[in-house]
From TrEMBL:
Occurrences of domain STAS (ranges): 18-110
Name the record gives this protein: STAS domain-containing protein
Organism of derivation: Nocardioides taihuensis
Superkingdom of origin: Bacteria
Top-level taxonomy: Bacteria, Bacillati, Actinomycetota, Actinomycetes, Propionibacteriales
InterPro entries: MlaB-like_STAS, MlaB_ABC_Transporter, STAS_dom, STAS_dom_sf
Length: 110
């Protein structure tokens, strides 16, 4: 496990999963963009971005994820978003970026 990050957002690489925690906003997009680029360039498989522990997100950050999804698709790979809470989902719908990203399916409750 390789950890990088600043004081506002922690970015942890766990295989082909990128786990984010903290505030994912315009100030942290450079770090996330670089981490995604490294994961997509270094693996011949799909990448998961886990947003479960993200406390705040803005539309600029979500655009970075949408662009990464687009670029991965061009190379025949997928970027899947995991752990999108209600606030993230609302912003994805409001910004219409929901059409450009792939959300991990959640298991149905029994």
């Amino acid at each position: 496990m390789d950890t990088t990050g600043g004081t506002r957002l922690d970015v942890v690489h766990d295989g082909t999963t990128l786990v984010l925690s903290g505030d994912f906003d315009a100030q942290s997009t450079f770090e996330v963009r670089n981490a995604l680029h490294l994961l997509l360039a270094g693996h011949e498989q799909d990448v998961v971005v886990d947003l479960t522990e993200v406390s705040r997100v803005d539309v600029i950050a979500l655009k970075v994820l949408a662009y990464a999804t687009h670029e991965a698709g061009r190379a025949g790979h997928h970027v899947t978003l995991r752990g999108c809470g209600p606030a993230v989902r609302r912003l994805l719908h409001k910004s219409r970026l929901i059409r450009l990203v792939e959300l991990e399916r959640e298991a149905a409750s029994a």
